Amino acid sequence: MSNDLEKDLNLGGSIDRALSGDYELNVGGILKEAWLHTLQNFFSFTPAIIIVVLAQFFIFAFALHFKIGDIWLVFEALSQPNKVTVEVLEAIMVANFSYEVISAPLIAGVSLMAMSHAAGISTKTGDLAKGLHYTIAVIIVTLISLLLQSILGSIFPLLSFYVSIVFSKSILLVCEKKLSPLQSLWVSFRAVNKKLLPILALYTITSILFIFGALFYGIGLIFAVPFFFHVKGIIYRNMFGIKLKVIPKNKSNDKDDHDKNSQIFDA
Predict the structure, then answer these.
(1) Residues pairing with 11 in the sheet
(2) CB contact at 8 A, 30 and 235
(3) In degrees to the nearest 10, what's the CA dihedral of 135, 141, 147, 151?
(4) pTM for the whole thing?
């Protein structure tokens, strides 16, 4: 009987609307909403961000050690530009590529958490693990995106930034819409190009915030990084929509539940 009462709702846009450009992206409104979500979910979301950053740091350090041996040679070379060699640059590139690919499932988990916040649903730090359910698909998406960024960036540097933006919705399309890696990249590419200017403006603003956050001993990144993911989640909601399953709660379970027990996806 309770299953009969379940309802599927779609919050925001849809794939069809996204591909036709029939969606609104108010830059000021998105930034304001993202800031509110960052503050409201600070204590549950920030630990997840810290876990991801630490994981990326250790992956980066391990890759450097594997490639060059003594990682302090890299830091020494960076502090003295005349000591930068081809070997050091190659090691940095390999380490950067490695941490982005290997940490992709964790990035998916953080992205899903931010998307949940954009749908008005609170999360727990442990929800970070939901991205692991899509490990193979998000790694494939990340690999293709990074390879295209590298190839096109070698032709013209700004093309790398463009590719990162037009494919920025592909991971969530894999996780939330269950699209294949190639489908998600193609749909993200087409949809983002329909509203490229406002999306470019939002990513430029968040990039500037990253720079300012890093200037103050990195303390500002505690807010800048969650803010960035919330901006991405709101953009995704407005473009593609978020499927919610609304289940009427039993009165006996009212104490621990939200006003609605909603699930974005079955992970």
Answers:
(1) 242
(2) yes
(3) -170
(4) 0.87
